[in-house]
Amino acid sequence: MKRREFLEKCAKAATGAGLMFSGVAVNVSASAGLSKSSKKLINQDGYDWNKHYYGMVVNPDKCIGCYSCMRACSDENDVQDRGFRTWVERYTITKDDKVIIESPKTRDQSTDKDDYFQLPPSKEPNIERQFFVPKLCNHCTDAPCTQVCPVGATYKTNDGVVLIDHPSCVGCGYCIQSCPYGARFWDTNYLCANKCSFCYHRVTKGLNPACVDACPTGARVFGDLKDPESAVVKAIREGGAKGLKRSLGTKPKVFYKNLSQEVV
């Protein structure tokens, strides 16, 4: 896309959403200026997003590196081989304290096409220990991505989920660059940013995200943070759950239990 076309698209989207004043982005209500598809998504029959506030707890001790969550996510959201809404990192700690972090997301895809979602066995000869850590969008309370989007295509719902209004996305890539968790990617099919949505189309119908249901060991627990009896609140109440990169002040709503100090 040429620069002139990009700026014209930005201006039209911003004008329609009422997002710009003197060239400066301002905050608007979560549903303002959204496409019909997004408005339909957040207005499911009988669903009140003011009554919920969602979060997830991940327990790496239970993750066995089967990558079932990645496959389920890809199928549910029709991502296929264009990127990863969720991924699993393999941490290998060597006997000389070297930390090796690998994932299907970062490996050279040209070297092995047998399984897009799975890592080959480690060839490191001096392994002290090895473990897996599932990653995804952290749906931050103070999300950097929502602050840098020039047209409001990235927004946070009243129930705490960070979504992308794909028809409104102008493809500037600011949100991808601003995410400190590397949770966003450029979707070559739809020509816009893409990421985990907590399977919002399922959640508003009372279902779990696909990755949660696909995990055979219960490494992921999802639920309503407003409900003291929900599984996610009980998991947090047990202790040992914390968000990643808390020093950044993003206030993530994905919490990790018993996290090893090597995890970044």
Explain what the structure shows.
The chain is α+β, with helices and mostly antiparallel strands and 264 residues long. The chain has one domain: Alpha-Beta Plaits. The protein is built from eight helices and 13 strands. The chain has helices at residues 3-17, 36-41, 68-77, 144-148, 174-178, 200-203, 210-214, 231-237, and strands at residues 20-21, 24-25, 54-58, 86-94, 99-102, 127-136, 154-156, 162-164, 185-187, 192-194, 220-224, 241-242, 254-257. Strands 11-3-13-12 form a four-stranded mixed sheet, with helices on one face. The protein has a three-stranded antiparallel sheet with strand order 5-4-6. Strands 1-2 form a two-stranded antiparallel ribbon. A hairpin with a 2-residue loop joins strand 1 and strand 2 (24-25). The longest helix has 15 residues, at 3-17. The radius of gyration is 19 Å and the shape is globular. The model is unreliable at 6-29 (pLDDT under 50).
Low-confidence stretches: 6-29
Q: What is the terminal-to-terminal distance?
A: 35 Å
Number of domains: 1
Strand order of the largest sheet: 11-3-13-12
